[in-house]
Design brief:
alpha/beta; Ribosomal Protein L25, Chain P; Alpha/beta knot; 6-stranded parallel β-sheet; 5-stranded mixed β-sheet; 11 strands; 27% helix
Length: 230
């Protein structure tokens, strides 16, 4: 179902006017019509359903039929050692579609220098929310130092890395963070810091070397599979 991101919120059994960029996206990109139904998302867990009543030249109105607060789909966050720009954009969108709560971005020793600007990142997250009907917008946190990411606050740290001696991780706890390196991998110092936490588990999948986006999606899939185990 077609969706609209409305960060200012909405309420059940009310009429809402949509204008500006959201209006243009709905009318000119999604080609909505009168009586079409919409999913409404505020990015903070509120999800509603509405029907378009009117479409003008610069705005449209929606009758909101229902609005409910959704539970977060995971208790897993991400720490991304930023890869190339194109790869990072794929990862941000995919992480949103997969329900990640927070995304910590850290420029590691082998990371690329330039990151997308804030407006580009916001547009990527919004697009992914609307495509997946996810009512939760991930929080993006930039880390100047690796210590800026509160790794010690997680029950489990799942480090995606190549390690033939890695032991299987236990079932994820109440809070987990998945750590993904860039195309060049982790430096020796970074790996040493990450493995210094008692809660760190190395996740080494029986695959060839994975690109950063593939590693992230495989890691989140692994995390879901582990979480669903009895």
């Amino acid at each position: 179902m077609k969706a609209a991101y409305l960060p200012n919120g909405f309420a059940e059994n009310t009429e809402l006017t949509i204008e500006g960029d959201a209006f243009h996206h709905l009318v000119n990109v999604l080609r909505v019509r009168i009586n079409d139904e919409l999913v409404l998302l505020d990015g903070r867990g509120l999800k509603g359903f509405g029907q378009i009543n009117q479409i003008g030249k610069r705005e449209l109105t929606v009758k909101i039929k229902s609005a409910t607060r959704a539970l977060e789909s995971t208790n897993c966050d991400l720490l991304l050692f930023t890869p190339k720009k194109d790869a990072l954009e794929i990862m941000l969108k995919s992480a949103t579609e997969l329900g990640v709560r927070k995304i910590y971005l850290y420029r590691g020793a082998f990371s690329q220098e330039k990151l997308p600007d804030a407006s580009r990142v916001d547009a990527l997250l919004q697009s992914a929310m609307e495509q997946s009907n996810n009512p939760w917008k991930p929080e993006i946190i930039h880390c100047s130092e690796l210590s800026d990411c509160p790794l010690d606050q997680f029950d489990q740290i799942h480090l995606m890395d190549i390690d033939p001696h890695a032991t299987p991780s236990s079932k994820p706890g109440k809070s987990s963070i998945l750590v993904i390196g860039p195309e060049g991998g982790f430096s020796d110092d970074e790996r040493k810091i990450l493995k210094s936490f008692k809660s760190t588990h190395v996740v080494s999948l029986p695959t060839p070397i994975l690109r950063a986006p593939t590693a992230m999606m495989a890691g989140i899939g692994w995390w879901y599979a582990q979480s669903l185990k009895p």
